[in-house]
Design brief:
Layout: H1 2-64, H2 70-100, H3 110-187, H4 193-315, H5 317-381, E1 385-390, E2 407-409, E3 416-421, E4 424-429, E5 432-434, H6 440-453, E6 460-466, H7 472-476, H8 485-499, E7 504-516, E8 519-522, E9 531-532, E10 535-536, E11 544-545, E12 552-554, H9 557-570, E13 573-574, E14 582-583, E15 586-597, E16 602-612, H10 619-622, H11 627-650, H12 662-666, H13 668-671, E17 676-683, H14 690-704, E18 715-717, H15 723-728, H16 751-763
Parallel strand pairs: 1-5, 1-17, 6-16, 6-17
Antiparallel strand pairs: 2-3, 3-4, 7-8, 7-12, 7-15, 8-9, 10-11, 13-14, 15-16, 16-18
Helix pairs in contact: 1-2, 1-4, 2-4, 3-4, 6-8, 8-9
Family: Belongs to the TRAFAC class myosin-kinesin ATPase superfamily. Kinesin family.
Region (Disordered): 717-764
Membrane topology: Peripheral membrane protein
Length: 764
């Protein structure tokens, strides 16, 4: 097997060398033939190009030259034709020489693919032969190991047999000696008894040794049987190895036959490629002859055209000169045209810009008009206006994916915001949306129109809604350096009162209350823990008031600050996991503005309710326990009652459950159609608060669709009161803030007051 493998390896190396030599020759011939073919094709293409150039030159001469230059160009063309004939003869000689060379196959031949396939097959055969050789070496090594083991077993068996034979011979000799001794002793009975006993003892020892020898002989026979069985197994393995070697030899012979067949096919294919190369050379030579004949014919046609075009060339000289002058003047004309085009394009761009500016101005004007009309429609329908404010991301929100911003805004519409919830974008449309960077001043500018309308005798309610930690208290109260809606509203009211001081006398009073655990408490009273009740006004107007609620008269900003500080100290706030200063109650700031016109005696009473609702919270997240848990339960219950009221108003139900909660009962005047109502919904942009933000925005959309009906003004004509009476109505008293019912005296009213009363009656 090793000799055949070595022979097969030598044959494979020889075939590889021959194949490499054939490949090198084939590549050399192919490159040579390719270069020559490309050279010949290039020369033919050059001749064609030159002929084409000659034809173009003739046409150019036909259009440019005159009769005086015809003879010169004719001589040049004759010389060029002669040179072309020489080049054609050289090409013909190269073609003949190429025909004699039969060295390389044509390019792009199918035999190259077959050659590559055969090479791949040869590499596969080589790889398989290498694998078989590896297996054969492994089998030889295994046979050698088993042979060595068999030799060792045979040596041990021989040693055991020799030792056994020696032991048997020794025992037989001793047994024979013992038997002879016994026989001799039996034949001599006269010896002394002692000797007989000694012989008997020696005979017993011999028997014991004989038993031991027999047991050892049996053990050795067992060992011999085992060794024979191992030897039999070794012989079987040797036979299987010999069979495997025979199979490998058969495969090697098959591979050798396959290699010989591939070698023969390669020789046949190379011979066929030689024949095809010769055929391709003949075809190329015949094509070249045909092309040369066509070139000769084209040259003859060129000569004929030269003779016929001479008269026409003279007639075209004048045209050529005129065209030359036009070409000389063309740059000036082009520059002038470009200047005019640039001027026209610049003017068109300026017109487009001006048109765009005008359209943008009209669009903004229409947008403002649309908002104005929408606000007027909302006012006429009595809808609750809803503003949204998004607080910025703070350090309390943490870091990572839970603190990511999920709220985006519409660049073209400041009333739309988008919330990313569970991978989907949900859009909400409110009346106005304030981004996180909006200031307190910007927020108040949108609500100051409502605030000032209470001076004219309208009831106004502004309440902040949202989850805990969303910024409701900041929007309503603010800080000392940056106050919120409450303090700015009173400052605006004082400013408006000072502006109308020439014609009107006003008195402003302030009350503050909170709803803590469904109990109404006075924040400005001497005993804030005392529970108050909500009752109907006894004058039959149907409005509500709180008996015992402290009402302070304020005349300056300093009075406002004192009232706010006193009320803020008494309000219930605690720390939770969601908010360090969480409001644990609903706070209400009630501002009553009473005014009288000196000239007509018209009396107006307006009320401004500023409500800071406690935030809704999830008990599991806020970590509320004990009293905090009870507070959270009451807060969520009152906000749920507010949702039930909004649902009943939205669906126009006959019964609205205002009395289900102290909060909804106290806001009955603001939600029953006799007040201008604005809800400021506060939301958090953090991803971890997405569920609460979604609930708040959905509630805001439901509130926005509620129609409360047209608003009525609280004004009446009365006799002229004294300044002491006007001031005595409000400071320090606890009277209900309902409508007055004083009837005017006909003798004290002027004709102007009578007309104003008629207008009020018709508009009421």
């Amino acid at each position: 097997v090793m000799a055949s493998m070595a022979h097969l390896q030598e044959e494979k190396l020889r075939l590889q060398e021959e194949l490499l030599g054939l490949q090198e020759k084939l590549a050399a011939r192919e490159s040579d033939e390719l270069s020559r073919s490309l050279q010949l094709q290039g020369q033919v293409e050059t001749l064609k190009a030159k002929l084409l150039e000659q034809a173009q030159e003739i046409s150019r001469l036909h259009s440019e030259l005159g009769g005086t230059d015809v003879e010169k160009h004719r001589d040049l063309l004759v010389a060029e034709n002669e040179r072309l004939r020489q080049e054609m003869k050289a090409c013909e000689g190269e073609l003949r020489e190429l025909r004699r060379q039969q060295q390389a196959p044509c390019r792009d031949c199918a035999h190259l693919q077959e050659n590559a396939r055969l090479q791949e097959r040869l590499s596969q055969l080589q790889q398989e032969a290498e694998e078989m050789r590896t297996k054969l070496v492994e089998l030889d090594l295994e046979v050698q190991q088993k042979t060595n083991r068999l030799a060792e077993v045979e040596l041990r068996l021989k040693d055991s047999l020799a030792e056994r034979a020696e032991e048997e011979e020794r025992l037989s000799r001793r047994l024979r000696d013992s038997q002879e001794t016994i026989a001799s002793l039996k034949s001599q009975p006269q010896q002394i008894k002692y000797i007989i006993k000694t012989v008997e003892v020696e005979s017993a020892k011999a028997k014991q040794a004989l038993c031991e020898s027999q047991s050892r002989n049996q053990y050795l026979q067992e060992q011999v049987g085992m060794q024979r069985q191992v030897l039999k197994e070794m012989e079987q393995q040797l036979q299987s190895s010999q069979k495997t070697a025979a199979q490998l030899r058969a495969q090697i012979m098959m591979y050798e036959a396959e290699l010989e067949r591939a070698h023969g096919q390669m020789l046949e294919e190379m011979q066929a490629m030689e024949e095809e190369k010769n055929h391709a050379i003949e075809e190329a030579f015949s094509r070249a002859q045909v092309e040369m004949k066509a070139v000769h014919e084209n040259l003859a046609g060129v000569r004929t055209n030269l003779l016929t075009l001479q008269p026409a060339l003279r007639t075209l000289t004048h045209d050529y000169n005129s065209l030359k002058r036009q070409v000389r003047d063309f740059p000036l004309l082009l520059q002038e045209t470009l200047r005019n085009a640039r001027a026209e394009i610049g003017q068109a761009i300026e017109d487009v810009h001006s048109t765009n500016r005008e359209l943008l101005r009209k669009y903004r004007r229409e947008l403002q008009l649309r908002k104005k009309c929408h606000n007027e429609l909302v006012r006429l329908k009595g809808n609750i206006r809803v503003f949204g404010r998004v607080r910025p991301i703070t350090k309390e929100d943490g870091e990572g994916p839970e603190a990511a911003n999920v709220v985006t805004f519409d660049a073209d519409d400041d009333a739309v915001l988008h919330l990313l919830h569970k991978g989907k974008q949900v859009s909400f449309e409110l009346d106005k949306v304030f981004p996180p960077q909006a200031s307190q001043e910007e927020v108040f500018q949108e609500v100051q129109a409502l605030v000032t309308s209470c001076i004219d005798g309208y009831n106004v309610c502004i309440f902040a809604y949202g989850q805990t930690g969303a910024g409701k208290t900041y929007t309503m109260e603010g800080t000392a350096a940056n106050p919120g809606i409450n303090q700015r509203a009173l400052q605006l009211l004082f400013s408006e009162v000072r502006g109308k001081a020439a014609d009107w006398d006003y008195a402003i009073s302030v009350s503050a209350a909170e709803i803590y655990n469904e109990a109404l408490r006075d924040l400005l009273g001497k005993e804030p823990q005392e529970k108050l009740e909500i009752k109907l006004c006894p004058d039959g107007s149907g409005q509500l008031y709180v008996p015992g609620l402290t009402e302070f008269s304020v005349r300056s900003v300093e009075d406002i600050n004192k009232v706010f500080e006193f009320g803020h100290v008494n309000r219930a706030t605690e720390c939770t996991n969601l908010n360090e200063h969480s409001s644990r109650s609903h706070a209400l700031l009630i501002i009553t503005v009473r005014g009288i016109d000196r000239s007509t005696g018209l009396r107006t009473t307006g009320k401004l309710n500023l409500v800071d609702l406690a935030g809704s919270e999830r008990v599991g997240r806020s970590g509320a326990e004990g009293s905090r848990l009870r507070e959270a339960q009451h807060i969520n219950k009152s906000l749920s009652a507010l949702g039930d009221v909004i649902y009943a108003l939205r669906s126009r139900q006959g019964h609205v459950p205002f009395r289900n909660s102290k909060l909804t009962y106290l806001l009955q005047d603001s939600l029953s159609g006799d007040s201008k109502t604005l809800m400021m919904v506060q939301v958090s942009p953090a991803e971890k608060n997405t569920s609460e933000t979604l609930c708040s925005l959905k509630f805001a959309e439901r509130v926005r669709s509620v129609e409360l009906g047209p608003i009525s003004r609280k004004a009446e004509l009365a006799s002229w009161p004294s300044q002491e009476q006007l001031e005595g109505d409000s400071p320090g008293t606890t009277a209900p803030s309902g409508r007055g019912h004083a009837s005017p005296s006909p003798g004290q009213l002027s004709s102007r007051a009578t007309s104003i009363r008629r207008k009020l009656q018709t508009s009421g």
